């Protein structure tokens, strides 16, 4: 039974995605190449690793065993590269970080800048994901550090407080919402929406709408929170964004800001890892820096 690192990375990606197609894309392989590698892995071990059907793939008992060992191997490889890079100083180190939309746009840039400035040999690969996907990816070893909401399942992971993220509704100053004392998500349907073009936050809002049997139909989709506030101030419609972004925009735009009263609209964001022992020295350094931020102390 001979598996190389590309095989293991592919298998981890497929296991996380529950799909050979999506796993192949994550691993940077074409679908035919990925399918052939998986077939060769099963032929080499003389055991079926995946059960395939029209909805995707699930792991067999042998697949679960391989997943466990693949995680350990990839984690140890990352640690080895990190330690060698720290010693040699000539090899660049990379930390993989996953975060939801609010953390990506509002909190991480200011936190990451000083650390990167003092670690010239370090790179950070940041990807945006929904909190549930972040938890799964950290558990599978696809990234060292995650920033996610405490509303998702994180059993077996190590969490540290980061910041509190509250979602608010933004509208024009003369909008009817400005006079309301309390705003619930369900109250907003029938209103013209200004939505994000893509991202974890918009996926989260769409999921909450679907949960109560409704659907968000935006008039326009935009890429940033400032753009949503600008449209709202012009009377185009309403948007839902993090409170930090709304406060910033209110300084220069004519908008009304109302907090959503739904429980899920207040999210405590946490730093998430599998375990400190598995982190590379570089990742440990970044984790300590993120944990020591002013917002984290006030959490």
Automatic annotation (TrEMBL):
UniProt cross-references to PANTHER family, sorted A to Z: HTH-TYPE TRANSCRIPTIONAL REGULATOR YBHD, LYSR FAMILY TRANSCRIPTIONAL REGULATOR
Identification of the protein by name: LysR substrate-binding domain-containing protein
Chain ranges of the HTH lysR-type domain: 3-60
Upper lineage: Bacteria, Pseudomonadati, Pseudomonadota, Alphaproteobacteria, Hyphomicrobiales
Keyword field contains Transcription: yes
InterPro entries: HTH-type_LysR_regulators, LysR_HTH_N, LysR_subst-bd, WH-like_DNA-bd_sf, WH_DNA-bd_sf
Pfam name, any one: LysR_substrate
Top-level taxonomic group: Bacteria
Entry's family note: Belongs to the LysR transcriptional regulatory family.
Record key words, sorted: DNA-binding, Transcription, Transcription regulation
């Amino acid at each position: 039974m001979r598996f190389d690192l590309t095989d293991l990375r592919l298998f981890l990606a497929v296991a996380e995605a529950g799909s050979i197609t999506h796993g192949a894309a994550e691993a940077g392989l074409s679908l035919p190449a990925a399918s052939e590698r998986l077939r060769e892995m099963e032929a080499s071990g003389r055991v079926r690793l995946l059960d395939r059907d029209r909805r995707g793939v699930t792991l067999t008992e042998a697949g679960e065993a391989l997943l466990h060992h693949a995680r350990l191997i990839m984690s140890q490889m990352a640690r080895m590269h990190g330690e060698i890079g720290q010693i040699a100083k000539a090899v660049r180190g990379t930390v993989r970080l996953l975060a939801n939309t609010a953390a990506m746009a509002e909190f991480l840039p200011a936190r990451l800048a000083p650390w990167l400035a003092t670690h010239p040999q370090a790179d950070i690969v940041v990807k945006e994901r929904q909190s549930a996907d972040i938890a799964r990816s950290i558990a599978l070893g696809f990234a060292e550090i995650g920033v996610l909401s405490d509303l998702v399942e994180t059993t077996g992971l190590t969490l540290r407080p980061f910041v509190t993220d509250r979602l608010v509704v933004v509208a024009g100053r003369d909008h009817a919402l400005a006079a309301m004392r309390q705003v619930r998500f369900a109250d907003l349907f029938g209103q013209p929406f200004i939505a994000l073009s893509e991202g974890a936050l918009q996926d989260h809002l769409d999921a909450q709408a679907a949960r109560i049997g409704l659907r968000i139909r935006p008039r326009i989709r935009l890429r940033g929170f400032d753009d949503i506030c600008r449209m709202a101030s012009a009377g185009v419609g309403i948007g839902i964004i993090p409170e930090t972004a709304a406060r910033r925009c209110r300084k220069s735009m004519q908008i009304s800001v109302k907090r959503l009263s739904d429980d899920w609209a207040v999210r405590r964001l946490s730093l998430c890892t599998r375990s400190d022992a598995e982190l590379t020295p570089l990742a440990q350094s970044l984790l300590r820096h993120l944990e020591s931020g002013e917002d984290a102390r006030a959490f």
